[in-house]
Amino acid sequence: MYLLGYDIGSSSVKASLVDAQSGRTVASDFYPRTEAEIIALRPGWAEQRPEQWWDCLKQATASVLATSGVNPHDIKAIGISYQMHGLVMVDKDLRPLRPAIIWCDSRGVSYGEKAFDTLGETRCLSHLLNSPGNFTATKLAWVKENEPEIFEKIYKIMLPGDYAAMRLTGRVCTTVSGLSEMMLWDFKNGAPAQFLLDYFGYNADILPEIVPTFSIQGTVTAEAAAELGLAEGIPVAYRAGDQPNNALSLNVFNPGEVASTAGTSGVVYGVLGEVNYDPQSRVNTFAHVNHTADQTRLGVLLCINGTGILNSWSKRTMAPDGISYPDMNELAAKAPIGAAGVSVIPFGNGAERVLRNKEVGCSIHGVNFLTHDRSHLLRAEQEGIVFSFMYGMEVMEQMGMRLSKIHAGHANMFLSPLFRNTLAGVSGATIELYNTDGSVGAAKGAGIGAGIYADNNEAFASLEKIEVIEPVAADRQAYTDAYALWKERLLAQL
Fold first, then answer.
1. φ and ψ at 36, to 5 degrees?
2. Cβ neighbours of residue 412 closer than 8 Å, sequence gap 6 or more
3. 438-480 tens-digit pLDDT
4. What's the 3-state SS for the chain?
5. pTM exceeds cut of 0.90
6. Residues 306-358: tens digit of each pLDDT
């Protein structure tokens, strides 16, 4: 008995086939081999063709079936993870009306700002838990104003994962979590956000049917089965955006549990057990995968743009030629905690929401030409990234979240012992590293939705824990002092 998981990303589509009983991944692949095309007709625009996702999904499916030799009739459920905040619009024949406007497209910003000012901060934050911002709802406002002939033809709007599920099942639906990331879910009323629909002039009929995150959301049609080489009737039993799904993949379900990633950008995603929001809207809050009318489970998302991209910049510009990332980590570790007074403010990859969308750039502070060398700069760079995480985590704590344990994949910046130890040291949290990814998590989510697993604990019983990092008591004060100096220098720029 097998489970199939898809991860619809902006760079590729990944498929993983998981043995439901052992939890072992029997085959995994992704397409395209090079990064998928992003159409950018103007600065700040980013679009992709939904048909491209489907074509890549077909190729990835063919590969995992061929590699594993699994009989398609033995696949019992399908789960989908996807890039968040995109806008797919289809007509009555369920055909896309134009390329999808994806997550990193910024043309909705001005519409979100105007809505926030017009409707009022208190109303937006108390109902949406966020400002309308640059999400699906505001991307649609751009279409309405600039492409009215397309807007008039809209039958349904959906997210990238909803589109993939529609192609598999023929059914147009989404989840409460999905509507919340569109910025179209009203947490106060427990229903689609009618006040925002009215403000933008959207008919509620364009919203997909709402289904539970873990449920039979449709079954593979004969047409899709023929295209993919799958068996007709396999249930699609789970879908979630990539960050909620990453948390699921790390078995993060309960209040106070936290999932983190540290790739090009960094994310801290914590679960909150009560409806709350940051009055300054420095973090995003969505319905988590296990949020229901009877059980509040919100995912509070902190994103730091200047994470791995700063580390790679340092490798290109500050590290000796030919040095590897592990070598960089060893060199950085030669400097003491706090890098002997050197601080790096790491926000050199655009405006940061946690700084209220200010663009302060990257800066280096406290360098002494006689006492500091490359090791101090490299350590301060990694500490600066961690301290930016801590700055955002303090916002999450102010919202009532107790951060005691951080789950992360054993990848990217979490491969650095210095990075891990600094995060544990400054936050006081235990860090647990796991071997997993989004498509594997989606497969196991499908197992929950299809009733193959009784709950998340059974689904993730086989999750491989690689390492546990505990904060070192003797080092806590040094990390606390270094963070205080970093924060003082940051605040002087705000």
1. -60, 150
2. 261, 262, 263, 308
3. 999 999 999 999 999 999 999 999 999 999 999 999 999 999 9
4. CEEEEEEECCCCEEEEEEECCCCCEEEEEEECCCCCCCECCCCCCCEECHHHHHHHHHHHHHHHHHHHCCCHHHEEEEEEEECCCCEEEECCCCCECCCEECCCCCCCHHHHHHHHHHHCHHHHHHHHCCCCCCCHHHHHHHHHHHCHHHHCCCCEEECHHHHHHHHHHCCCEECHHHHHHHCCEECCCCEECHHHHHHHCCCHHHCCEECCCECCCCECCHHHHHHHCCCCCCEEEEEEEHHHHHHHHCCCCCCCEEEEEECCCEEEEEEECCCCCCCCCCCEEEECCCCCCCCCCEEEEEEECCCHHHHHHHHHHCCCCCCCHHHHHHHHCCCCCCHHHCEEEEECCCCEHHHCCECCEEEEECCCCCCCCHHHHHHHHHHHHHHHHHHHHHHHHHCCCCCCEEEEECCHHHHCHHHHHHHHHHHCCEEEEEECCHHHHHHHHHHHHCCCCCCHHHHCCCCEEEEEECCCHHHHHHHHHHHHHHHHHHHCCC
5. yes
6. 899 999 999 998 888 889 999 999 999 999 999 999 999 999 988 798 998 88
